[in-house]
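Why do we care about 3D structure at all? Because function follows from shape, and shape follows, mostly, from sequence. That is the central idea of this module. The next example makes it concrete: a single protein chain, its amino acid sequence, and then its structure expressed as tokens.
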Amino acid sequence: MDAEQITKRLKCWKRRHAELMAVYNAMGKLTGADRYSTLFTPIFDLWNDYTVATSELIGDKEEWLQWYEIECEMGRAPMMVVLRDGREIEVKTLRQLARVIINAD
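And the structure:
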């Protein structure tokens, strides 16, 4: 899969994350439930499964999607990554994340 194809899949994945978080935030305000409540645990388990499936589909063997979601806060907190060839790049965008995934292989 090339960078353009990976980026296309990542855009869908990120859009679903934004939709999930919008509902989670709204429901959290209404119910007072947090991420680990019985209401949300199954939903976030499905999200994690979707992330793993997306990773497998695009060839992400190093769990870069989980890293991007948690450590980079979906691009809001860019971080530096050293590629296999020794180059260092900042990862903020999905296109940059796709480059990391391709270069990790």
